[in-house]
Amino acid sequence: MVKKICLFVAVISFAVALTGCSAFRSHSQTVNVSCIPEDAVVMVNGTRVATPARMRVKRDSNLYIQAEKEGFTTYRRTVGHHLNATGVLDMIGTCLWIVPCAGLCTSGAYSLDETDIAITLFKK
Q1: Which class for 86: exposed (0-12), middle (13-18), buried (19 or more C-beta within 10 A)?
Q2: What's the rounded Cα separation, in Å, for the pair 101 and 19?
Q3: Residue 8 contacts by C-beta under 8 Å, 6 or more apart in sequence?
Q4: CB neighbours (10 Å) of residue 102?
Q5: CA 92, CA 101: separation in Å to the nearest integer?
Q6: 10-48 pLDDT tens trace
Q7: What does the alpha-carbon distance between residue 77 and residue 31 come to, in Å, rounded to a whole number?
Q8: What is the pTM of this model?
Q9: pLDDT tens digits, 67-114
Q10: How confident is the model at residue 3 (pLDDT cuts 50, 70, 90)?
């Protein structure tokens, strides 16, 4: 009986060790935004920021960036997000043991496609 319990504990421990839990990852991610010229109006997700800027944003949502200055072409860009390595481990762990499925429902399972955004505005 003791051997069966030890085997059961070993199998569960192995299954847990193979999974990452996205629920314990940060729900936000640091993004750096710079712009040339620096006095341009830069908006990140609708909020005006002074560049260079370093900010925390949700990792499971797209990032919308716009920069403009009179006499320059307006810059618009969307930075997407993807399932990160911890999310993939949670997905694999879900096949072995259902508990890691909870991590897939959190923003910690995702990462932004890019975290360093350098903007250059060009004259019209």
Answers
A1: buried
A2: 10
A3: none
A4: 13
A5: 9
A6: 777 665 555 557 777 889 999 999 999 989 999 999 999
A7: 14
A8: 0.75
A9: 999 999 999 999 999 999 888 888 777 776 666 667 777 888 899 999
A10: confident
Using CB atoms within 10 Å of the CB of residue 53, give its burial: 0 to 12 exposed, 13 to 18 middle, 19+ buried: middle
Q: What is the pLDDT of residue 75?
A: 97
Query: What are phi and psi for residue 78, nearest 5 degrees?
Result: -120, 125
For residue 84, give both structure tokens: 């990160």
